[in-house]
Specification:
The protein has no helices and 4 strands. It is mainly beta and about 55 residues long. It has a two-stranded antiparallel ribbon.
């Protein structure tokens, strides 16, 4: 987690298919994310999530 850059780096096994990964986020009650926390996401070229608190 890089708070200054507001980024989180995630590593996956070399054999992982990044074209359709199911994400999992733990958010506090009332917070939401875009895309949704349990969505299938194409991570082959990175992804941006927006977190909204309340």
């Amino acid at each position: 987690i890089d708070e200054q850059k507001q980024t989180i780096t995630v590593y996956a096994p070399w054999s992982a298919s990044l074209n359709s990964m199911t994400t999992s986020l733990s958010l506090p009650e009332g917070a939401t994310s875009v895309p949704k926390a349990a969505a299938n996401v194409d991570l082959s070229s990175g992804a941006k999530y927006r977190i909204f608190n309340g």
